[in-house]
Structures are given as structure tokens and as C-alpha cells.
Design brief:
Layout: H1 3-11, H2 15-37, H3 43-65
Helix pairs in contact: 1-3, 2-3
Length: 66
């Protein structure tokens, strides 16, 4: 999914849904760190993309709460 499409989808979500999605991303990143430590190199690109998506979610949450 392209970044613009993802941002549009995120902006349509409620704050509660965004917070739930952010928690899931944190858990997923935690699991990916273990995979990275075990030597599975394909997780690096996934981790980078997940961090960017999480930052987008947090930005939208902050915008909606202000």
C-alpha cells in the first residue's frame, strides 16, 4: 500500500482505533526485534516500514487530540 493511501486510511479512523493499531504495531516491532537478533535479515525492511507507519499513526492521533 502506498504511503498516501495508508495516510488516507489512517485519517478516516477514530482515535480509539488508532490507539489500538499503535499498540499492535509496538507488539509486532517487539517480535521483529527477536527475529532480527536470531539472524533473519528480511525483517529489517519490515521494521523500517512499520516504524514509519507507527509514526504516521501517532501524528494523526496527536492532530485529532488537539
Amino acid at each position: 500500500m502506498k504511503a498516501k493511501d495508508h495516510v488516507k486510511k489512517i485519517r478516516d479512523m477514530s482515535v480509539d482505533e488508532l490507539q489500538r493499531q499503535e499498540k499492535e504495531m509496538v507488539e509486532q516491532m517487539f517480535r521483529m526485534r527477536f527475529q532480527w537478533a536470531m539472524g533473519q535479515t528480511e525483517t529489517l525492511n519490515k521494521m523500517r516500514e512499520l516504524r514509519k507507519q507507527r509514526a504516521r499513526v501517532l501524528t494523526v492521533i496527536q492532530e485529532k487530540e488537539s
